[in-house]
Amino acid sequence: MSAKNSDALYxxxxxxxxxxxxxxxxxxxxxxxxxxxxxxxFPLYVEAIRxxxxxxxxxxxxxxxxxxxxxxxxDESVDRFVTSGTLANYFTxxxxxxxxxxxxxxxxxxxxxxxxxxxxxxxxxxxxxxxEDNLYYYSDIISAGIPDVDRLITDNLLRLFILxxxxxxxxxxxxxxxxxxxxxxxxxxxRIVKIKDLANTIVSAFxxxxxxxxxxSKAKKVVMYIWQxxxxxxxxxxxxxxxxxxTSADLNWSLWEAVxxxxxxxxxxxxxxxxxxxxxxxxxxVELEESMLDALGILPKRxxxxxxxx
Length: 310
What we know:
Elements: H1 3-20, E1 33-35, E2 38-41, H2 43-48, H3 57-71, H4 76-82, H5 89-112, H6 118-142, H7 147-166, H8 179-192, H9 196-207, H10 220-229, E3 233-235, E4 241-243, H11 248-265, H12 268-282, H13 290-296, H14 301-309
Antiparallel strand pairs: 1-2, 3-4
């Protein structure tokens, strides 16, 4: 891109971001086309997300701010529009972009285990900052309170990253993600992305046999769905196809044993990572269902007593 075109792009996105800062339930009607009480066109948003993964971080940041302004308007017809049809692919692409960043971090960590350099350390810090910025962006999106968006982020994180790569990497050294990187990313996701279904599914993979989910309420359908899919091959969109362990029990107990094994025989970094994961799991009480808390052995005494009475 020429300098002239680049300057024009910066200017245009800057103007769009400024406009988005004034959006509310009244002003947004000036920027959308409505038919039969439904938004059918929203050029500002549609054109903006085309640049969501631009090579320039300043442009990516501006687009994220613009999208957050849209999500936080609180207009239900706009919420339906941004999660409809091909526009829903934006949330899939977000996870794909995040996944690539995580793999880049993993390569840097592997390289750092073989050599020590100031440039490599700086690259790792920059990669970590970008990854956490992505997760905080997810958190900011979730704070808008759009149920369909929460579902899309949860489903895509599980289908495209956590289930096929992140969790299996803790027990299989042959996968693309190293255990140290996986432990770090698991902590970040649980600590930053506060979605109950996501937290319950991750914790269930560590601690609970399949039969423990019959009493779940809000997370029941999601967790049962995940366990059913974990029984064999998981067919995703055209670009994604992978296999998980043959039985859910094999995976959940292997994950738990893997974390404990790092505490017993791992190096200093693996021990620290395992302790961080255990500490983070114990701090996710707000997101976890009572059945999960009970399985972890951290159900409050008052609720334990109530359970015994029932």
